[in-house]
Every structure is written in structure tokens, then in C-alpha cells.
Amino acid sequence: MFPAPRTSPTRADPPPLPGDGDVTYLRVVDADAYPDWEAVYRDNVGRLYRLIYARVGNRPDAEDLTSEVFRTALGPLRMASSKGEVRSYLLLTAQTVLASHWRRSLGLAVTSIDPESDADYLAEPSGPEPPSDAPHRAGKILAALPDRYRRILELRFLEACSIKEAAHSMEVSVSNAKVLQHRALRMAAKVELELELGP
Amino acid sequence: MSRRRLSDFIDALADGRRPGKFEADPEDVEVLRTAITLRAARPGDAVPDEQFVSDLYETLAATENSEIVPITRPTRMRRGRVALAAVAASAVLVGGTAAVTEALTSAAVPAAVQAPHGSAVRTGTFETADGRVMGQIVVYRGNPSWVFMNVDGSSYTGPIMCQLQVANGTTVAVGNFQLQGGTGQFSRTIQVDIGHLRGAKLVDASGAIVASATFA
């Protein structure tokens, strides 16, 4: 599950200073290790948030769970671990935190984090473009739907329209828009399942 | 009722609000997952808010700095003190991270405990005497090994102690932590073979067993 422990580069003790007794030295930091917890946070907070957001689909829960992961993980974390080991630990913590979230909120797991298959979320360089494959997956699902089903889901989920705005745009009543959205999601779920099971 | 709550949950997702809680049916999982997939594809929302990132940093800095050493500073010591510190470190059977770190730091060896690695993971579910689920516990075999637990499902606020039960019948106290409104998390390095663990107990301040778990 976790990467094998790596051999640390040679550490060289700094030379003693003149007249030292018990002299305090700064630790030599491996190039592959984080120098301090702030570096762990800065390097991973965006990546971890993106992964969790992709699993819960809303900002308030994604922020709460990201906070919970760091609060839980940073305390016992020690800095001589390699970056890969730190990220593995963050992913493992996120896996448990997400599972607990679903158990509390819905009583069953809707999505999950796999530390192995989701490792790319933390391994990819942070940047303005998220490494999530959600747009690609959503595009494939929507492309397989009838026009009206595709349109209601585009309006609601991608274009941030309220149900009233979506109903107005599609020239139907609000109650009809709700029914349309429900049926469209049911069909989209079947499509997504077929895509996962497909070749 | 369930369909109404499912619809409310999906509307909250689409509107960017925090969805409410409800007991979902297994047949709803695929619809919920698809709604999340579609919502996660909305441009721009996958980037964390700068204020959130800044606020969380401040929170962590205020609450975690006492437990995290930003730059470890091993002290060069005489050989006798090094040996003494090494003995102290090796004498810890089940110890907190802080204790282990202190011992190792004083020994002028890499002041670090590795993040967990290895394949062995054992899990258990905390349950009350009447069968209510109160959380999860996970132990990882590594160097050192780790225990992580997440507790919720009660209204209890106050200190709680976690005890690990070893197969030979002994019980080892791992540490204390606080439950707020029944919720709390705890993680700690442990120096015990997780293969020898049988279960875990949560004990309140009065010594009463709140919940227990058996490792799978």
C-alpha cells in the first residue's frame, strides 16, 4: 500500500563551532523531505482539497474534511519522512476521514479514496488546473443522454442555474424541471455505471 | 420521505450548499455519486478558497505548533548521554509521539518517526454495549506502527481514554483525548506488534467502558 522506505541521502553533521559545549545545529534536510510542517501544508493543501472536493462535490464539506485531515495528520507526522511517505499518510488519513463523513451523513459510503489509485492527486504538481478527471467523466456521461436530460443537468450542475432559472431556460414549470432533473440523474447514473463497467 | 431527502440533498449539491444528513438507501448511491461527479466538474470550484487556506494555516499554527517541531534541532551530546537517551527510547513500549520524539531528538539521531508504511492494516468498529456504532479504529504496521481512531455517535463531552487489548490478556493504555459532543479523533505512534492486538476499549473519566472494538 505504501511506497517502500527510501534510503536517505547521506547526512553530514555540521562541523563543530569554536568553543562549543552542547551546541545546537540545524538538521540537514533531505531534498526529498519536507523541511517543516508548513511546507507539508503549503505543498498539499490545494491537492488534498481538490481530491476531497471531487469526492463530496461541495465546498463546505470539502473545507471541513480537508481541515480534519490536516488536524489529524500533522500532529503525529515527523519531518524526516520522505515526501512520498507524507503524502501516503495524508491520503490514508483522508480515506478514513471521508469514510467517517459518509457514515455520519448518509449511513453508507457514496465515494471513497483509494491511497493507491488516488495517489496522482497528491503527486501531480499544484497549479491552477486541477488534475481531476471530473470534467472528462462528466462530458462522457452528458454526451450519452437525450438532449433535454443533458440540458437540465448542464444548467443545474455545470452552469450554476437555480431550479427556477433552469425551468425558465427550458420553458417548463419548476415542478417539471425537478422531475426532469430526477429522471436525468437516474439515467446519468446508469450511463456512469456502464462507463465504469465498459471496456 | 427518502426520495424527498434525496432530492433535497441533490438540490443542495447543485446549489453549492452543504447537503443535509439522511439515511440513504443503497439504491440511491449511484445517483448520489453521479450528482457529485457532475458537480465536481463545474469550472473553478475545485480550487480552494484563499481565505480558507489562510484561515486553516492560522488554526494549525496556533494549535499544532506545540506538537510539531518546525525544524528539528538535534543536540550534539557526549557519548554517555547518547547511550542513556537510546536506552530511554528503546524502553518505550507504547509511547506517545512527543515522548518518542524527545528521546530521539536528544540522542542526536535523525529526529524522526517515519510515516506508516507496509501492507498490514487492521480495523475495528467501536460499539456500545447495546450495539450502537461509536466510531472506527485502524492500526497500521510500520516503523513505528500507528493507531488512528475516529469517534462519534454520542452526546458525551469530556476526556476519554483508549486502551488496546493484547492477545495475552493484558491491556495497554494508549492515551487520552477529548470528545466534544460525542466527536473526537486521536492518532498516535505505538510500539507494539499489531498482530498481537485483539481489540480496543474507550473508557470515560469514571472508568466506565463506553465502547469496545474487536480487530478484524
Describe it.
The complex is a heterodimer of chains A (199) and B (216). Chain A has two domains: 37-123, no CATH class; 134-197, Winged helix-like DNA-binding domain superfamily/Winged helix DNA-binding domain (Arc Repressor Mutant, subunit A). In chain A, helix 6 (147-158) runs antiparallel to helix 7. Chain A has helices at residues 37-56, 59-74, 83-105, 119-123, 134-143, 147-158, 163-170, 174-197. Chain A has 199 residues and is mainly alpha-helical. By secondary structure, chain B is of the alpha+beta class. Chain B has three domains: 2-40, no CATH class; 63-113, no CATH class; 121-214, Superoxide dismutase, copper/zinc binding domain (Immunoglobulin-like). Chain B contains five helices and eight strands, in the order H-H-H-H-H-E-E-E-E-E-E-E-E. Chain B has helices spanning 2-15, 29-40, 50-64, 79-90, 97-106, and strands at residues 121-127, 133-140, 145-151, 158-166, 171-179, 184-190, 197-204, 209-214. A four-stranded antiparallel beta sheet of chain B has the order 1-2-3-6, with no helix packed on it. A four-stranded antiparallel beta sheet of chain B has the order 5-4-7-8, with no helix packed on it. In chain B, a hairpin with a 4-residue loop joins strand 7 and strand 8. Chain B starts with a helix and ends with a strand. The model of chain B is unreliable at 65-119 (pLDDT under 50). The chains are: A mainly alpha (199), B alpha+beta (216). The interface between A and B is large, with 97 and 84 residues.
